[in-house]
Design a protein that fits this description.
Elements: H1 2-22, H2 31-41, H3 46-51, E1 55-64, E2 69-77, H4 83-92, E3 105-116, H5 124-136, E4 140-141, E5 151-153, E6 157-161
Parallel strand pairs: 3-5, 3-6
Antiparallel strand pairs: 1-2, 1-3, 2-4
Length: about 160
Amino acid sequence: MKKSIILITAILLSVRCMAQGQLSFPFQGGKEAMTQFFKDSLNVSEDIIQKKAVGTAVFKFTANERGIITKIVVYYADDYVLTVPIIDALKKSNHKWIIPDREKAHDFIIPFNFVFNPLAGDNPDLQKAVYDNYRSRKPIVTNDQVPLNETTLLPVIVVSYDVAQ
């Protein structure tokens, strides 16, 4: 009986170790490297800063076996102005994506959240600018369904920026 329990435990442990080996993070250097890459590579445009734009953008992209992005799709964006710097940063990430073995291409979904660093004290002009941007934004929404069984969902990238007073 003891031998059976030890054998089953050894098998379960080896299966768990193999599964962890297959589930490595799909960006060279891991999650922290990906977060730092987007922090360094994503340039918040003057248009975003002027409009005090905040919100979310969700992208799906396809990378081939060499880690080159071959297709970028906007699944949702609170406003068009948020999408431009993300697309530029995604294009800079070529050759950094790790594709699972025996796949010619792999899809990823990555959400971005734009926020600005708060200013000290109450600022009614800033509150009005944020509200005006919220009222005038034109969301981008896709009608396609997201095939989650064939896609890797990546962690949210938070983009924070300073606003002029």
